[in-house]
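Sequence, please.
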């Protein structure tokens, strides 16, 4: 990943002009924190008004990028929760944590509303019968996601064998994130 004022400015413009999140490295925030530290150290060694301007503008642009990405992640989490198409690809590590936590909050909120409006019966419903489960081996690390019926699933680690409902298992296999496995019990 290129670390420069110009690269950050390109990300800022992409975030500003595109509805989708710009793909960033997992270590995006750590990298730019280091970049700012390096700039500050250079300023202490050799003060320059031009360098101060670049440093301050970098801070300002980074703040704008963070704020815009937070808005987009919030909207993405809500949209993905409603559609059931959960993916955290292209997010930095801290953003992925935010995204997963937002999904958990939305699921808990929906469960609470369902319980309040449907009574105790909705809160006590059991998952699908065990004979409707399919054993799959997870091929990649997967964050938690929400099933079609708004139930939390995961997170899973690569090589883990789990039993999922047929719909979720087929979806993961279709996306090459899982393969058929023997039932564990």
């Amino acid at each position: 990943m290129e670390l420069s004022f110009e690269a950050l400015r390109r990300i800022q413009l992409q975030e500003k002009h595109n509805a989708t999140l710009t793909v960033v490295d997992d270590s995006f925030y750590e990298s730019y924190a280091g970049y700012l530290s390096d700039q500050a150290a250079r300023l202490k060694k050799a003060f320059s008004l031009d360098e101060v301007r670049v440093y301050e503008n970098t801070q300002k642009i980074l703040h704008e990028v963070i704020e815009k990405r937070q808005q987009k992640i919030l909207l993405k989490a809500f949209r993905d929760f409603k559609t059931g198409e959960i993916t955290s690809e292209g997010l930095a590590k801290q953003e992925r944590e935010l995204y997963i936590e937002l999904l958990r909050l939305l699921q808990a909120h929906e469960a609470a509303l369902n319980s309040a409006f449907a009574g105790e019966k909705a809160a006590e419903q059991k998952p699908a019968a065990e004979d409707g489960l399919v054993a799959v081996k997870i091929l990649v690390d997967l964050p938690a996601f929400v099933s079609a019926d708004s139930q939390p699933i995961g997170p899973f680690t690569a090589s883990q064998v789990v039993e999922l409902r047929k719909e979720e298992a087929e979806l993961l296999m279709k996306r090459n994130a899982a393969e058929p496995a023997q039932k564990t019990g």
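The mean pLDDT is 85.
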